Amino acid sequence: MKRAIVTILVLVILTPIFSYLSELVEYSEPLENVAAMLNVEEKGIYSGIIPDYRIGFLNEYISSIVSAVIGITLTYLMIYIILKIKHAKK
Question: What is the pTM of this model?
Fold first, then answer.
């Protein structure tokens, strides 16, 4: 368990580097590339909790760390709740 937590923390700390490198090589999501090729614009009704992993008032690299922590926390909470419900049914 301790090893998993350390690994997750290292990856969270590295997220700004991944963000910077993706901009450096001009990476974009494959679905965005297809939309650009088809000349289709995004008109979603819901942009998500943290659209494009950016929190408006924060620096983009700090924002990527915060969004990683939020994503990990939400995932952990969902798993925790599901396991609690599963064990309560036994």
Answer: 0.66
